[in-house]
Amino acid sequence: MQRLILLCAFLFTTSVITGQGIDFFHGTWEEARELAKKEDKLIFIDAYATWCGPCKRMAKDAFPKKEVGDVYNRYFINVKLDMEKGDGLVFRSTYPVSAFPTLYFIGPDGSVVHRQVGAQGAEQLIRLAQFALAKVDNSDDYTTQFEAGDHNPELVLKYITALNKAGKPSLKIVNTFLDEQENLDAPETLKIILKAQLKQPVVFLTC
Question: What tens digit of pLDDT does each residue of 98-113 get?
Fold first, then answer.
């Protein structure tokens, strides 16, 4: 019970911190790619034009929503690119953009996971995120290793991260790991607790 209470406390803290809309990366396109590789995240691209009305409405009405930020800030490196200048032109030379806005989900290796043309509402953005994350779900690989008895912290952290990305529950895995630990204050254990969640961030307060 103490382990469960501890886990809920960490999740509650995390839910408070993430209560904002999408936080867009302010560096260059190349820096965003490097960060995505480092954190093993997909890149979400809002490919827009300054004169585009639907782009402006989405930026005003959908991107600032807390429930959208809860998902996108946790799972993606988020980037806005003006397709008519600077890094937008560089991006456009590799990834086709013929209408605005075009939304891209790109893997750390540069591969296109999903491409969506047209402005989206808050609920649509969340569904798009879930769809993109499901397409790169590699949690089954870690399931096999974990069930075979590999419970080392590095493997467990990768397993939980993969489950989180796919929107799958990780609480059972976390509790199994915690039950085997003598020291819950160990840095690797705290990382695992912080990574844990039931499904999506919006359900954190169910603890």
Answer: 999 999 999 989 999 9
